[in-house]
Amino acid sequence: MGEFFFMLVLLVDSTLRVAAPLVLAALGGLFAERSGVVDIGLEGKMLGAAFAAAAAAAVTGSAWLGLAAAVGVSVMLALLHGYACITHAGNQVVSGMALNIVVAGLTVVVGNAWFQRGGQTPQLTGDARFAPIDLPLAKTLEDVPVIGALYSEIVSGHNILVYMAAIAVPLVGWFVYRTRFGLRLRAVGENPAAVDTAGISVSGLRYRALIVGGALCGLSGAYLSIAHNAAFIRDMSAGKGYLALAALIFGKWRPVPTLVACLLFAFADAIQVRLQGTALPLVGVIPVQFIQVLPYVLTVLLLAGFVGRAVAPKAIGIPYVKER
Amino acid sequence: MSGSSAGGGAPPWVSNAVLPALNLAAALLVSAILIWLLGADPLAALKLLVAGAFGDSEAIGYTLYYATNFIFTGLAVAIAFHAGLFNIGAEGQAYIGGLGVGLLCLGLGGLPFILVLPLAILAAAAFGAGWAFIPAYLQAKRGSHIVITTIMFNFIASAVMTYLLVNVMIKPGQQSPETREFEPSAWLPFAHEILGYVGIEFGRSPLNLSFVWALICCVAFWVYVWHTRWGYRVRALGWNEHAAIYGGVAPARTVIVAMTISGALAGFVALNEIMGVQHRLLLNFTGGAGFVGIAVALMGRNHPIGIVLAAILFGALYQGGSEVSFEMPALTREMIVAIQGFIILMCGAFENLFRRRLVALLRPQPAAATG
Amino acid sequence: MTAAVPGAIASRSPALEARGIDKRFGPVHANRNISLVVRRGTIHGIIGENGAGKSTLMGILYGFHQPDSGEIRVDGQVQRFRSPQDALKAGIGMVHQHFMLVEPFTVVENVVLGAEDTFRIEGSLVRARAELEKLGRDYHLEVDVDATVADLTVGQRQRVEILKALYRGAQILILDEPTGVLTPQEADHLFRILRALKAEGKTVILITHKLREVLDVTDTVTVVRRGEVVAEVATATTTKESLAELMVGRKVLLRVDKTPAKPGEVVLDVAGLRVRDSAGVERVKGVSFQVRRGEIVGIAGVAGNGQSELLEALAGIRPVSGGTLRWKGVDITDDAGVRTAKGMRRLGLGHVPEDRQRMGLVAEFAASESAILGYHDDAPYNRNIILDRRIVSRECERQMAEYDVRPPNANLQTLAFSGGNQQKIIVAREVGHNPDVLLVGQPTRGVDIGAIEFIHKRLVALRDAGKGILLVSVELDEILSLSDRILVMFDGILVGELSPGQANERTVGLMMAGIRSEAA
Predict the structure, then answer these.
(1) Do B345 and A290 touch (CB under 8 A)?
(2) Of C98, C101, C116, the CB nearest to A180
(3) What b/e sequence results for C456-466 when a residue is b if at least 16 CB atoms lie within 10 Å of its CB, and e otherwise?
(4) Domain boundaries defined on chain B
(5) Of A86, A253, B190, C237, which is least packed with CB atoms within 10 Å of its CB?
(6) Backbone torsions φ then ψ of C440, nearest 5 degrees
(7) A284 φ, ψ (degrees, to nearest 5)
(8) What is the pLDDT of residues B267-281, one digit of tens each?
(9) C9: Cβ–Cβ under 8 A, 6 or more apart, which residues?
(10) ipTM for this prediction
(11) Of the candidates A105, A83, A89, A92, the residue with the CA atom closest to the CA atom of residue A40
């Protein structure tokens, strides 16, 4: 029993670690997609941000400057996406795809030219990365049965970006449903003409949504390279951007359900790591690939309407062109 | 002849020749600036690239070998575009196409080549098409967005293949996850072998018979899309779904048909890679060809002639690019990936950047039929 | 009142004045030197044909478009509108033809959108709710402010649009074709609202192409033709005939020359037909009628009363949910092989769809390709597996010559042709395949006068060749001048049948409002 409880705690703990970047990226995507701009470029923004964070942190020795660089690069990529899709009414899927590919190539090329380590950045130590934070009383409560373990292992001991991800969810919810910006954001993704005729600039609104989304995505990229790991490795986002997009769709473009989807996907990942090679009673060894594909299969099933129904913002993917 | 794309007010020669050339030039300019920023000489790099891609028959062979893959995936993405669908899943469809070819060659590879070849073509097509069929069916019947489902299916394909190669199909007693080698009767002949047979000397390269099949597919594509009633249906649906329904086109069936053709074309990548070069099934043999296909289709304006030209361009980038990275260490192979991204960006996402300006430039004589 | 001097001047100047407005969209000269004076506290009509430049003018007046030259004065002050927000600040509000509402939002959220005064919307919503209730009482604008817009009727949505403008302090209200989608009762309700607004000193600009409305409700009327103002008259001094003449620029032939019909055998027999729309709502609720050879059966009705669904169901595009359908005496209701767009065409049913851009053509196709839409599988165009483009082009050129399509170039993209020429391509295609029954929806919507006459003559000629025609139109004039029998559709049922002798605007108009005419 004790051992099982301990394993469960560890599982939840690693779930949170895997979920944090997904949550940040998915919430970033929420802003873009709610404004009517498809964001399959989450992957590229995450990867670009991860590189920028690691490179800047390696050069300056400061994790915070790394974080700023990550946000900067991610926002720039978002603006480029906006320039193609908003200003020039380009195809949003094509643009996102193109950015993903550009970043996949550029990070390695630039990284190699800069650090001569085959696309990797130098190992980060000390202040150049975000260390785990021990919350007050974590040590004191450690030995209290159940509650102590829950607090010190699960709540305490994460890096600052995990806490940022946790705070981001209610904050984004409040922003989207309770503020002027949120009202307009939701409107522009449903009927941009209504927003335009109400005297609000559709382009301005969408650009702002992309900037906010880009910033959040930048945090998630920084998490990968300067918090969870201690260097940038080529292709280190490894599909997490697409997974975040899947979580956003699975969460029906709403903050809290998106969080739940991220946790679900992350939990599957945590289990897979833990189960590797171990035989379960009755079923035997479950191949890791089966658990790895679970999020993708679930998303396909959801989109097909076999588990609930996801209705996208009505104007998503359609460039807004003023009618004559 | 009808153009392959809406003019947006521009005459066909502008839409189909001037604009792609301008977009490509812009992408290459961005790449040149990047190369310069990396401390290398863009012109020298270009010279190396051209020499590396077309310098001798061996180089040309390599270039066309890469182009073979890109013709298949370019056509695959293009047929979906004609139906108004964005198939991001060519990568996964090609991968699963490899499973078909691999199973066939492992099972029936001992048969005479003349039998294995058509069966392998069918297997590649069937497996690729099958993998495209599911997203197509879900789009057509359940309204799931094909962009997302095909992305998901790429991941699923990758996991399935990893599982099969690691746990099931691996050659016993071997570490690396790949199957045993096929019997030689299941190998496609290389170009240097064929040409040597008729007395022409050609450098050794992976270029093989599948290149001819790629060109046959181009002709068939052209006939199908513009000169059959089935192609008419696909294009009608792609441009205007309501009009297509009014005209008696069944949307669900047409979506499924277009996507299965797309998947089959993608599956042919396996003929080149598995049957032509590797002679065994192995992990990640597609190497991103499915994504290059997006760039090729966009640049080639969904027309076979454009696709062949764009595929050769990318083939040259891949082949010449490795020569360049050998001579100029600052320019690693990933540079090609970035350039590929720039080309998709300029030819796809920024296709209106020059269009609007050109259309405005060409306007002075009022359009022929207004009022 | 003892207002300050500038105010006194302002109160004597017109509410809105436009001087020398000029606007081009590329090669299209949409507005030419337009001048307009709208007095305060009046209802001012602007009429013109489709494509006369009314909508562009309105776009300029409320800041959506910027004029190439000319100026706008509000209360005598020159204004430059760079966006609708600027126009709103000057007190100009717009009610669009296609409502600019966010469907998943509530009424109050829609009203507040763009007029939120604080970062948090809570306070704005509370204030708006109170204000809306007051406005509702003052102007007969009752709507449930917490209802979701998606659940509202068309008439209610329009009231939300008006509330939106008033909430923003609009003194001048522009309405673009406001009755196009309304039933006569809803239209009457709207006119009551407009008169109430006028009584409170607001100014209303009403854009329409319906002469009756202009005569009913306006004080002054400006007539626009081909981007120019051709007349500005006091409504009381004018007549329908003279307005119509001003609008189109010459005497209009309201009647089409035709001989009495010689109806033959029944081809299409519809009994108790029911049809649902895409959302599953029953839009055709049991209609029965017949179409015989040699007659034109007209279906009159306000748009949105089930005519579109009826046409699409007959054409095989939409399934029927009840009733029977007979073709030359054979029950085809459940014949899955026949009840498709293709199957119905094979039987001999032609279809000129209501919305030609959306359905009738593929804009990006060459004209020759659009000219075989629906017949692309047929033998003459196909040899074995090949679709013979030479035959297709030759056939298209022949049709273009016969129907005087300009320019007569079959290889040109369809979108390069004007509305009238596109419609001729469709009519040529459908008539050319020699149908036994031709379904015709809104054949002259957005089509110039010349093409209207041409198309009308073709339809009569087809009738005289012994074919049956089912004509659906929201243009009463068109129904009255073409039909040999008139059916009136309201809320999914046929409320009556009239012969051309009995029918006039009044009798049909009453029935369109859902009032059954026992006399008929």
Answers:
(1) no
(2) C116
(3) bebbbebbeee
(4) 13-360
(5) C237
(6) -130, 120
(7) 80, -155
(8) 999 999 999 999 999
(9) C76
(10) 0.90
(11) A92
Which residues in chain A touch residue C113, judged by CB atoms under 8 angstroms apart?
A: 183-184, 187, 194-195, 198, 200
Hey, what CATH topology would domain A14-303 get?
ABC transporter involved in vitamin B12 uptake, BtuC (1.10.3470)
DSSP character for C150?
A: G
Give the predicted TM-score (pTM) of the model: 0.86
Q: Which fold has domain C266-512?
A: Rossmann fold (3.40.50)
Asked if residue B226 lies in contact with residue B2, where contact means CB atoms within 8 angstroms, the answer is: yes
Please answer whether residues A246 and A269 qualify as being in contact, where contact means their C-beta atoms are separated by less than 8 angstroms. no
Buried b (16+ CB within 10 A) or exposed e, B260-288: bbbbbbbbbbbbbbbbbbbbbbbeebbeb
Using a CB–CB cutoff of 8 Å, tell me whether B367 touches chain C. yes
Strands C349-352 and C437-441: parallel
List of E strands, C39-140: 43-47, 69-74, 77-79, 92-95
**Three-class DSSP category at B139:** helix
Interchain proximity A300–B153, CB inside 8 Å: yes
Q: Give the helix ranges, DSSP H, for C249-331.
A: 307-314
Identify residue C266 by its one-letter amino acid code: V
**DSSP labels for B286-332?**
TTTHHHHHHHHHHHTTT-HHHHHHHHHHHHHHHHHHHHHHHH-TTS-
What's the confidence (pLDDT) of residue C102?
Answer: 95
Domain B13-360 sits in CATH at 1.10.3470
Q: What is the arithmetic mean of pLDDT over C194-203?
A: 93
pLDDT 10s digits, A267-302: 988 888 877 767 777 677 778 888 888 888 988 888
Q: Is C315 on the interface with B (CB under 8 A)?
A: yes
What's the rounded Cα separation, in Å, for the pair B292 and A16? Answer: 36
Asked if residue B20 has pLDDT above 90, the reply is: no
How many alpha carbons lie under 13 Å from residue B249 in its C-beta half-sphere? 30
Which chain B residues have a beta carbon less than 8 Å from that of C362?
A: 235-236, 239-240, 243-244
Of C496, C451, C455, C504, the C-alpha closest to C479 is C504
For chain A, the structural domain boundaries read 14-303
Top residue of A183, A314, A321 to mutate, by most chain C CBs within 10 Å, is A183
Closest to A289 in 3D by CA, of B283, B133, B94, B106:
B283
Q: Cα distance from C61 to chain A (closest Cα, Å)?
A: 13
The whole-angstrom separation of Cα B288 and Cα B295 is 11
CA distances from A59 to A63, A113, A122, B301 (A): 10, 14, 9, 44
Can you give the residue ranges of every domain in chain C?
A: 99-169, 266-512
Q: C97-123: per-residue pLDDT in tens? A: 788 999 999 999 999 998 888 899 999
